[in-house]
């Protein structure tokens, strides 16, 4: 069992902060099956139509994560939560590309729940994982090809250094079709009760497992636990 913790600095600033996790072993990542492709396309088309008449700020989870970013010193207009960035693409009428089954399911869940969700190759993670606030020394090459610095931003770090965030993830721990073990991190909206957060993570991990096989475990870490 991998160790996962949240920095007290975060929970002191955000008492209701919670992070969900799902750990998968012996999975098979490949091109998304037709069932996933169809659901992904249908959901995107539905969201595009909804977004024609709805501002993103009307989604509670989007508004709440923008508020969280402001509270920790991140400008949400410059560095957007990844879930909001996905929704903005759809609002502009741009479909999200298919990547592979793990990334496609991850994006679908992020769109469905309107929260940032990261998925990482567990074999590229070294030691315990800590969710904390970055400083000027924290940076990595993101999946967008840019070098991102993380001062006053939420990041996930292991023994090597930072590898993920609710903004953009690193290339170091990217999931590929060679990935056999993975960890998914759910940036739950803080106002969601823990019991509801656990239901969200449970449903998500079950869906992921149905597509990828193997075995898994999940949970939610909050200040109470």
What can you tell me about this protein's structure?
With 225 residues, the chain is of the alpha+beta class. It is built from 6 helices and 10 strands. It has helices spanning 8-13, 34-53, 60-72, 82-91, 101-113, 194-212; strands spanning 4-6, 18-25, 117-121, 129-133, 139-141, 147-149, 154-157, 162-164, 182-187, 215-222. Strand 7 and strand 8 (162-164) form a beta hairpin. Helix 5 (101-113) runs antiparallel to helix 6. The two termini are 17 Å apart.
Strand order of the largest sheet: 1-4-7-8
Task: Tell me, briefly, the overall form.
Answer: globular
- Nearest-integer average pLDDT: 95
What is the count of DSSP helices, taking H or I runs of 4+ residues? Answer: 6
The biggest beta sheet reads: 4 strands, mixed
Strands, count: 10
Helix coverage percent of residues? 25-40%
Which oligomeric state applies? single chain
Unreliable stretches, pLDDT < 50, 5 or more residues?
Answer: none
SSE order: EHEHHHHEEEEEEEHE
Strand content: 15-25%
Q: What is the SS-derived class?
A: alpha+beta
CA-CA gap between termini: 17 Å
Give me the Rg, rounded. Answer: 16 Å
